[in-house]
Design a protein that fits this description.
alpha+beta; YaeB-like fold; 4 helices
Length: 98
């Protein structure tokens, strides 16, 4: 998969240095993957991932302390970073609107 944009991941690493390693591992794993449907993601991440609609995916990062929200375009093999932050902040947003 092509993660759009790595720069955004690096910005989150600077904002949340405690999550840096976990975010970079997620990025490397995503780049090395080919997801053609939600089940491909589910098979890899199990309970560490949830789905909002057809294309919005929420990953639990660093033991569920953080959440990463992405939009996956399966046909184009692209992942768009939408939001990242602590679980407590995630609870305050409407994921379907970001």
């Amino acid at each position: 998969m092509h993660v759009i944009k790595k720069k955004k991941i690096l910005e989150y690493c600077n904002s949340y240095p405690i999550a840096r390693e976990a975010l970079l591992i997620w990025h490397a794993d995503a780049e090395a993957s080919i997801w053609t449907r939600p089940m491909d993601i589910q098979n890899t991440y199990g309970k560490k991932v949830s789905f909002v609609g057809d294309k919005v995916v929420v990953f639990n990062i660093k033991g569920n302390a953080y959440r990463l929200v992405v939009r996956v375009e399966y046909l184009f093999k692209s992942v768009f970073i939408r939001w990242f932050g602590p679980h407590s902040e995630y609870d305050k947003i409407n994921v379907s609107e970001i």
